Predict the structure.
Amino acid sequence: VAERVRITDVSPRDGLQNEPGVIAAAGKVRLVGALIEAGVDEVEVSSFVSPKWVPQLGDAAEVFAGVAEGLGSSGAGRGRRGVVLSALVPNEKGLEGALKVNAAAVGGDGARGGPLIGKVSVFAAASETFSQKNTNGSIDEVIARFGPVVRGAHGAGLRVRGYISTVIACPFEGAIEPGVVARVARKLIEVGVDELDLGDTIGAGTPGSVGAMLEAVRREVGSAWWDAERMTLHLHDTFGRAAECVVEALGRGVRSFDGAVAGLGGCPYASVPGRRAPGNISTEVLVRTVHAAGYVTGVDEAKLARAAEVARGLVAGGGGTASGAGERV
Ligand code: HMG
Ligand code: MG
């Protein structure tokens, strides 16, 4: 039997956080619904970060409320597919925001009976400069904030994903040593995360550099971390090489990947003057690549193409969407 690969779509978060305008919550809710319908395993819906830092996602609670309503009325979503909904939280305040949403959530849990937000993601970096620019603290300071976040999340029955950004290169410091990534991975594990997500924030990776980085991380954390539930690769696609990197990672046993439908995405704090941070690998290319390599996913490619239409409609300011009206607020 073909092996299963886990697909997470991060477009509502990593995609829309990098748009110059703020997209209306109702549009984001539609996008999440289309992604659930397409059969992805997980949707990263939004972030509970400072709205001064990322105003694009200041409506996280409203978006989750809309998603909950959709799940409740249609019977789709968690109950039927067991899709996991997640959000970024940089600190305790962010976790509080996520837990408040869970407490207020309406709509059916279906058979699973879990909370609406089933997973929160903390994020650290392998570059000190990027850590300062993105989260206003050194790598160690930022990881120290995660201790109470992880304990609080686990206490509430949530899983915790731990991102590491700039695993290949930093927009400010250049190439990052694989050994540095491995040490940050170790620290995240020590703070209690359930899974790691390795982010090539600026899409600098090649099969060679991604392979070397994965090898260093695996040596440090051990093969026990190398399964679909615990190790994910998060690629951006600046130079069109992300699909090759997926193939390389599959060959090295990685069974979980992030993508953003329609190739939206990029971290605003990874942008440098004159060069905006590039988009994520599109979930369409990701899924096609994984299927072509002989693995199965839960994704229906035709429905995924429809979700990509929704995404393109949102960032085009409403063009091509059902409402026809501008999506930005
Ligand atoms: P700070 O300014 O040092 O925070 O920012 P602070 O604790 O000093 O608080 C300052 C103000 O922010 C206070 O408000 C807080 O209440 C508020 P004020 O008193 O001034 O009115 N605040 C918050 N509000 C809402 N939710 C919160 C929150 N925390 C504080 N959680 C902080 C530190 C981490 C908060 C800030 O730097 C931040 O929010 N950064 C987020 C940046 C971000 O979201 N970047 C994009 C995601 S990472 C990414 O894209 C990479 C990834 O895709 C992987 C890859 O590609 O590599 C994941
Ligand atoms: Mg990213």
